[in-house]
Amino acid sequence: MVGELEFEKPVVELKKKIAELKEFTSDSNVDLSDEISKLESRLQKLENDIYSHLKPWDRVQIARHPERPTTLDYIEHIFTNFFECHGDRFYGDDAAIVAGIAKYHELPVTVIGHQRGKDTKENIKRNFGMPHPEGYRKALRLMKQAEKFRRPIICFIDTKGAYPGKAAEERGQSEAIAKNLFEMASLTVPVICIVIGEGGSGGALALGVGNHIHMLENSTYSVISPEGAAALLWKDAGLAKKAAESMKITAPDLKELGIVDEIIPEIRGGAHKDVAEQAASIDTVLLKSLKELRKLTNDELVQQRYQKYKKIGQYKIAEKDFIGVR
Predict the structure, then answer these.
(1) 304 forms bridges with which residues in the sheet?
(2) Alpha-carbon Rg of the chain, whole angstroms?
(3) Which H or E run includes 98?
(4) Whole domain around residue 132: which residue ranges?
(5) Could you tell me if 117 and 160 are in contact, meaning their C-beta atoms sit under 8 angstroms apart?
(6) Is the pTM value of this prediction over 0.90?
(7) CA atoms of 106 and 132, how far apart (whole Å)
(8) Number of alpha carbons in the 13 Å side-chain half-sphere of residue 299
């Protein structure tokens, strides 16, 4: 089965068995409705057990699912009159980042997001969703345009990270990311960021400085991939599962740490099961978020963003930790 995940195998096998029995029943005079009903009840219980107790590595697998909806999928379902803009006016266009103007509930907005492919040909075109510097400069150009014309900015984050190749470094990859962080911090229009897949390192953060940051339930947001962390910590990328469990990269963990404002629930099994339904869930959170931010003045938007990031990383030491300390 295309895109079958390891932890889903029992569910897939049971669904296959039910389908076989239904086909056999329709092709013969044998009534197996009782057996099918029992198996369907068993399937429902199995799905509840599996999807209600997902481990961090399970969520990493879902976030990387080849059929997981992309930025363009959500643009199609959530926005109207999308007009894509191209080029950074310095070097060229980067297909790994999609950016343009659209209408959201009749309100003009600027939409920017990482874009990966769903097959080999498209992944090559999109550079597997890993942007070059011109991609980030294109995004910043559209952000400054949005600020000029008072349009809210909506960013979809879904990348393993910025492209680490020689050409990208020669064209100023680090500077382009740093410039985005600097400029986004002071934008005077609402900026809403939604992590829809993988949010990897500075490549994700370059579109992630917003007033509100939301995450799909099975997305990840991290400074490095679990494989990379495992290779650095234990010299073995094969320990990625162990790294994922200790890195706090899932939506529930990041919500608890105050990095994410709201977790957007996913349908059972992941967003790829029903794009339209998942888009509707995003729309609900996005609309609420936008209504709240549009009430703020220019200065209040900048200050709210500043305070949000200032609080990240704060912690308290319990009084008991000082017992016995001199």
Answers:
(1) none
(2) 22
(3) strand 97-104
(4) 61-311
(5) no
(6) no
(7) 32
(8) 0
Q: CB neighbours (10 Å) of residue 93?
A: 15
Q: How far is CA 221 from CA 102, 199, 203, 252, in A?
A: 26, 4, 11, 11
d(CA 67, CA 41): 27
Mean pLDDT by 10 residues, the chain (326 residues): 64 76 75 76 70 85 92 97 96 97 97 94 95 97 97 97 94 96 97 96 94 96 92 92 92 92 91 93 97 96 94 69 52
Given a contact cutoff of 8 angstroms between Cβ atoms, the answer to whether 191 and 305 are in contact is yes
For residue 10, being part of any structural domain is answered with: yes
- The answer to whether residues 7 and 58 touch, using CB atoms and an 8 Å cutoff, is yes
Same domain as 93, residue 49: no
As beta bridge partners, residue 107 has 104
User: Does 37 share its domain with 68?
Assistant: no
Together in a domain, 23 and 68: no
Whether 125 and 170 share a structural domain: yes
CB atoms within 10 A of CB 181: 16
Answer yes or no: is 105 within a domain. Answer: yes
Same-domain status, 80 and 34: no
